[in-house]
Write a structure and sequence with these properties.
mainly alpha, single chain, 3 helices
Length: 83
C-alpha cells in the first residue's frame, strides 16, 4: 500500500501520541473452487479480495487477541461460504 506524505505524517503523530494504528497484510490461502473461465476467475478474485479487505478493516474495532480471533473466524466463514 502506497501512502501519501500526509498519511505518513498522521501515522507518525499517532505513534508519538501513543495511539495504536494497524498495518495491513494478509497471507491466508483459501480453498475455493475455480470459477470456470479466465474472466470469471478474475471476477472471483476481485470479489473474494474485497470481502477479505472488509473483514480486515472491520477488525479495527477490536484490539489484541480479540481482533485476531474475530478476523480468523470471519475468514473461515468466508471460505466455507464458497464451498
Amino acid at each position: 500500500m502506497l501512502m501519501t506524505m500526509k498519511q505518513w505524517i498522521v501515522r507518525i503523530l499517532l505513534l508519538a501520541a501513543g495511539r495504536v494504528f494497524f498495518i495491513y497484510t494478509e497471507d491466508t490461502v483459501f480453498k475455493i473452487p475455480t470459477a470456470g473461465d479466465y474472466n470469471k476467475e478474475w471476477e472471483l478474485l476481485g470479489e473474494v479480495g474485497a470481502k477479505v479487505t472488509d473483514i480486515i478493516f472491520d477488525g479495527d474495532a477490536y484490539e489484541g487477541r480479540d481482533r485476531i480471533d474475530r478476523i480468523q473466524a470471519r475468514l473461515k466463514e468466508l471460505e466455507a461460504a464458497y464451498n
